[in-house]
Write a structure and sequence with these properties.
Length: 84
């Protein structure tokens, strides 16, 4: 391990409360086992918040996709009825 890598340093419950010797995640103070990375939303409220946070706009929003679907159905219906 390179010398300039920060160590996690979280205290172990076992092993006589010795500090963790794993490298800390980049730009973090702890390793992956001691709170370096998020596990993501687990509750229903958290998942709903996550979905609304990534709400899309423009071409790929639900409203725009529904609108294009309706237009395609109308064009198909019009084409079938009038046999262009």
């Amino acid at each position: 391990m390179p010398l300039n890598v920060k160590l996690c340093g979280a205290k172990a419950r076992q092993n006589n409360h010795q500090p963790c010797k794993q490298p800390a995640i980049k730009n973090k103070k702890r390793c992956r086992m001691h709170g370096g990375l998020s596990t993501g939303p687990r509750t229903l409220e958290g998942k709903m918040g996550s979905t609304t946070a990534s709400l899309k706009h423009s071409l790929y929003s639900k409203a725009a996709m529904l609108e294009r679907s309706k237009i395609r159905m109308m064009l198909k219906w019009h084409k079938e009825d009038h046999n262009f």
